[in-house]
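ok so for the tutorial part 2 we go from a plain amino acid sequence to predicted structure tokens. step 1 is just haveing the sequence, like this:
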Amino acid sequence: MAYVSNPKIQQAIPIVMLIALFALSPARAQSQDGRPIADAGLSRYAGQDPIVLDGTSSYDPDDSGPLSYSWQQTSGPTVVISDANTATPTVSGFVQTDEIQECEFELIINDGQNESLPDTVELKIVPFFSGVEMHLENDLFDPNKPTIIYFGGGDGINGLPVYAQSPWDFSVWSSKANLLSFPNGYRAELGASELPTYNSLGNAIISYLSAMAPNYHQPIQTIGWSTGGLPAIIVATYLNQTYKDTRYAVNRVTGLDAVGPGASEMISQLLDSAVDNEQCWLDSYVSTSKAFYGDILNVSFSSSSHELPRDWYGNSLTLNTAALYNSGIVGGAYWSVIGPGKNLHLAPKSNTKQYIFNWYGSSTSGYMDFYDESAYPGRLPEPVVLIGPTDGAVVDANGAILTCEGSENAVGYQLLFGSGPHRVMDYMVISNTSEPPIEVITTFPFEKTWWTVMVLDQFGSTIYADPILINAENIAPPVQKIENVTIGKKYGSIQAAINDTNSDNEIVVKEGIYHENIDFQGKNLIVRSVDPNDSAVVAATILAGDGNDNLVTFSNNEDASCVLAGFTITDANNGIYCSGASPRIVNCNIANNVDDGMKLYMGSNPIISNCIIAGNSRSGIAMFFFKSGRTTYYNSPTIVNCTIVDNSEIGISEGKSTVLNSIIYGNGVQITGSFTAVQYSNVQGGFPGEGNSDVDPLLTNMENGDYHLISQAGRWDPISQIWIQDDVTSLCIDAGDPTSPIGLEPSPNGSRINMGAYGGTSEASKSP
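step 2 — the prediction. this is what the tokens look like for a chain of 768 residues:
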């Protein structure tokens, strides 16, 4: 990196370097030159039982001859490979330890003329899980069915054998799902934490599912009765956080009178453990205690019988009065992974208790109603019934209406398109209306396009129908607006592009409105608009939330090589959320979010440059310190050439911020906390530090989102795309750090950088 004389910005990217970064010519995918294509299959998990690798998806584009296979281990603890010259070798000889061990295997194929490039597959040997015995109620594991894992009660450490507790008739449930239980009970591991852990159960479960269903696409639900609620939550969270694999993530948890110590903290950890943007949620059924929790579905029982929630839940699959939609006042198996409401996702991060119902009756008869309608008025949205072409139908150039029946309690309808039947959260939003869609759709993004309609209620809970396949004759590939320019592959959603790539890739997003939350998943990528240096492009490349959850998440140790650049980030709960991460946020408008513009946790140290953070309902940048033993984790962002204005509460709160060349003005409070270092910045009310000022910055039009500094010599108008001369000049022009490079500021520029988001850029207001 070029030397920067001012130590306050030695970590920040100089503007000229940013432009060079975005101008790099991307590397393209390597041509195969007629070679066969090796495919080593999906990653696997193993305990001690042998695992079969799968190279059967390898192929020869020109069919020049029969394929031969050659597998070899390239890293990790030594294991045994049998039949290494076949498409499906067996790997055995695993030695488990207390840690996850990673092995890598390489496959090369040959068509008799050419040899493929190698393809690799990862196999993880999971930690030791002695004494865990699982029982499958089904005759055979069916990879086309969901999986339910049941935990019986016990004493909080030892789970009793499930058959000793007279649970419901498992046969009814096993006809619709793979049902796993622990016939000989289970045991927690006791460590230094206050709560027990059940890591051995999670390790046993993922190794079992990997063997049974290497390419699993069905939902997984854990259910716990009594103290079985502990492992139901803890195992789900462990699987999600430790392995981060969408195939075996647990996104639905049910507690049956499962109140216990630390419940609120455990529930919060579960809700935060979602993998690849697929939300987690939990429903809780209580009789002996009326402990209700936010962000989940709560159902109370009039009786104080500890067994009633368990027995009622099992019967709710077939109990008429419990299996009806009942205008959205319904719980139990209706919302399970096998019920008609299986695609429900509760509103996340609402910090409220919107859905609390009560069952009046026994385990075999009764009715559901509000617990307290005046305090908790929420009714859940009705499952969606699609109206349109039948599954697999061909749609010609005349198009078709893809719609649905009206869904009770729905306030919005989104028509969604995807390239496969799974991961609906990655689908493209085609229309967003208050009523069922009625537009005739004549072009489609894929030859095989899956479509569905998702509805949302007034609190932000959503539900969608299982997607339907269309074989389209009229294809319009330009709908795919996202490209990984490093490998030359296009996508229908930003998250799909992130999911499908590795660190060091560059993803470019064309102008448009993207209704999706994105998570960088610990990958150090560049994700940018077409031109982050053009304010008109930034204004037209919009990540739009629905008022709930975080819009952009960095929570897996992303570092300064991870870049988000050139977006407008709006209408979310929090625009950007960083936890233990330090990415670069460049040339972004983070505005009009329901909570904070940016929220920083767990020692996050992002570099935020040339950003506008404005009009958020709480703080512009909110920071929260975390104590663990004697260690306190502060957040230490570097904020360079930013405009932080008009936020309702605080501009910059707490933390150990370093602020340079910035404007902090018109917020409820400008800066709080005693550790912030500010230089050459304009802060309303003043702030100690070299070069600081307190003047009206004279921003062009805050109400309409134009934060350029007015100037008699000329300021850039992003709408007319011309320079406009004003009657007065902002004193923030030529007021930045005199040692900062002026970057691309147009002439006349006074040879000194401006304060604010456009300082150092080609849109910097001119000097008089």
